[in-house]
Structure formats: C-alpha cells, structure tokens
Amino acid sequence: MKILDIPQSGKLGMQVRMPGRYGAVARIYGLCSNPQTGSQMAVRRRFATYIRAWSGLSVNQRLAWNDAAKTYLSKARLGQSGPLTGAQLFTRLNYNLASMGASSVVVPPMAVTFPAMVPSGFTITNTVGVIKLSLTCGDDPTEYTVVSASGGVSPGRSVDRDIRVLGACPQPVLGKSDITALWAAQFGDPVVGKKIFVSVHQMIDGFTDIPVKWDAIVPSAQ
Predict the structure, then answer these.
(1) How far apart are CA 100 and CA 46, in angstroms?
(2) What predicted TM-score, i.e. pTM, was given to this entire model?
(3) 49-77 pLDDT per residue, tens
(4) Which domains does the chain have, with CATH numbers?
(5) How many Cβ atoms sit within 10 Å of the Cβ of residue 115?
(6) What's the distance, CA 175 to chain centroid?
(7) Cα-flanking dihedrals φ and ψ of residue 179, to 5°?
C-alpha cells in the first residue's frame, strides 16, 4: 500500500518498504519464489566464481582494485550512492566480461570512453508468416555492442524487468542487424500480438555505458 513517510528501502519488521511510481510503498514481507531455472543458476555460479577469485588475488592486486574502485559510484538509491569496494568492481567487470565470453582480468583496467551507439531503433516485421526482429544500424557496431531482450509479454505492459543478455549485435546487412536467431535461442518462436522489449549497451573492458531501450509488438502477417 502507498504510505506517507520518509523515503525508505528494505525490510523493517514484517514489512518491506520501497520507492514506488507514485510515492513510498509498504508491503507485507514474503519469501520470494526460487524456481532455480538454468539461467538463474548460471548467473549465481558466475558470481560465485568471481567472489572466490577475489580471495585468490594477491594483497597488492586487491589494493589496486580498492584504489581503482574509489572513483566509481554505486547505483543511486533514494538519492544516495557511494564508492564501490574493490571486490564489487572486480566482480562487476569480470561478470560483464564473462557474459560475453571474454577473458577475466586481475588488474583493474583504465577508465574508457565510449563511442556513439550504433543501433538507433528496433522493428519487428511479419512477411507471409516469417517474423524478423531487427535493429536499425547505420554503421557496423563496435565489437562489444551487447543486445538484451525480454520474452514476448502483454502488449499493455509499459516496462519489463526480465531482460536477458542475447549476445553481441550481429553485423548489419543493408542497415539492419537481424537479432531473430539470438532472440529465438532464448525464448523460442515470437508470438503475434506480444510485445518485445530490447535493450542495447556497449561494453569495453567490462565497463558498460547507459543502455538504450526500445519495444515493439509482433504484427500479424502482411
């Protein structure tokens, strides 16, 4: 339920408090479902791998990560953020690299400058029953232009939080990068009438820029 109170986030007694769309919200605490899907377990194993790897670093390596992390802030929550720890930066960068099949790093990389994002739009076509999901690309995307997407959801939904990494953006042909195969490998065949959310960001040395997001509804056959 919506409440009038100082903004809070987290568990308080038997309530969980969080910022909502129209103000502060309080809900009764309940255990989250844990279906332990393949994708869930893969994410957990990846995090566990780099948590263990952090312990295996030398003292000097950990000090270097701690120094580097001081310049990177956590994601703001309730208007507040703070510098990352060395362990958090190490895990974040190596998790991002692993998600794209890249090698891990033990030395903190230098800060990077991202080029302009190449993909500029997302479309879905249905030509005689052949559905194609495409990103509009006026040029070749960078090596680590990462594409993520949701499965098909209700067309009335305005946001979707179940976004999964599909892989690197394929090279475009005639200004279109076909991501149909990447999407189908995660979610199966697209369904007419369902909405699909797509998010694209760039990654260099494990650092990521701000994602660009689009959505489109799978049309009927033309």
Answers:
(1) 12
(2) 0.79
(3) 888 999 999 999 999 999 999 988 777 66
(4) 1-32 (no CATH), 38-99 (no CATH), 119-217 (2.60.40)
(5) 13
(6) 25
(7) -110, 15
